[in-house]
Amino acid sequence: MITYEVYEQEIQKGNVKKGYVFCGLDEELIKDGINLIIKREVAEEVKELNLIKIDGMNTSFDDIMNACETMPFMGEKKVVIVYRASFLQDKSDSSGTKIYNNIKDYVLNLPPYTILIMYYLLSDKRDRPNKNKKLTTLGKTLPIVHCDKLKKDKYLKKVSDIFKEKGKQIGRVELSYFCEKVPNNFDIIKREADKLISYCDSREIKKEDINLLISNSNEDDIFDLVELIAIKKVDKAIDIMKEILYKSDQHMLIISAIQKHFLRLYEMKCKLIKGKKVEDFMVEYRLPQFVCEKLVTQTNRFTEKQLAELIRLCVKTETKLKSTGIEKSMEMEFLLINTLTVKK
């Protein structure tokens, strides 16, 4: 199994194999990796004929084999992409297992003119491809590319290239700040870049623009966590809590952020009762409309009494965290479990 960086270096050297299996959480990063091969091996004028894409969730082995066996048209190579190939997941149904077993044997003797690329998406951050026995077996024949987080320099360059491809320059300071604010997910990064470019139009991008349009990734995590509390899915809320702590092992800052979020929801709840609208919150909190709309929707999931009690729970937990000899992560989990006892 190789990293995205190693794979990229190999392609740049012209060392292209007969096939690849990609896996990861970030589908856009996987697609970017696949495009490196397409640009190198398939001429633009014959792309429609020599580039075949197959839905891996709705296919058969015969579909894949027939695509691979067909000769390329006016070119030396053709690329066959099987996207979202669910049959590569460690656990699959009988149909998926049958496809995998056939593919496992078939890739041993791929036609010399075909590059077969397959990929599947990991279910979450705890899904480890090196534990997948199917990949271990396929890895003896095809390179397995794990598209995990890029190293800082590579990450910054790739994000910078996204702005350049869209015809927009971004300063080094602003680029670093942008990367700190957005989640490490290229689908989200591209959408946030589009938003910034449209907003700034012909002028240069400033930090103030980034602050206005993009919330902190931690803020998004806190929003998701509170949403799970609202629908009583505490087990999933605990998973998100662990991910937040993994990224930033600062319990006091996180409990403070949760408390602050509940306080804002409480304020908005009181003001909504008095007749305030989304437009009023946009002015008061200096937030974009879509952010205020999300907050109002979440506010409506709680009663005023619930929000007051949730704030009290946060204060109580914060006090405990300041004590010595406390298992902080456990206290944070207790907080989430105790939210189940909060009545409307």
TrEMBL record:
Catalytic activity: DNA(n) + a 2'-deoxyribonucleoside 5'-triphosphate = DNA(n+1) + diphosphate
Gene3D superfamilies linked to this entry: 1.10.8.60, 1.20.272.10, P-loop containing nucleotide triphosphate hydrolases
A GO MF term: DNA-directed DNA polymerase activity
Keyword DNA repair attributed: no
Domain DNA polymerase III delta subunit-like C-terminal positions: 219-338
Positions of the DNA polymerase III delta N-terminal domain: 20-147
Pfam families referenced in this protein's UniProt entry, alphabetically: DNA_pol3_delta, DNA_pol3_delta_C
Gene Ontology terms: cellular component: DNA polymerase III complex
EC number: 2.7.7.7
Transmembrane segments: none
UniProt-listed GO biological process terms: DNA-templated DNA replication
UniProt KW keywords: DNA replication, DNA-directed DNA polymerase, Nucleotidyltransferase, Transferase
InterPro entries: DNA_pol3_clamp-load_cplx_C, DNA_pol3_delta-like_C, DNA_pol3_delta_N, DNA_polIII_delta, P-loop_NTPase
Family: Belongs to the DNA polymerase HolA subunit family.
NCBIfam families: holA
UniProt protein name: DNA polymerase III subunit delta
Source organism phylogeny: Bacteria, Bacillati, Bacillota, Clostridia, Eubacteriales
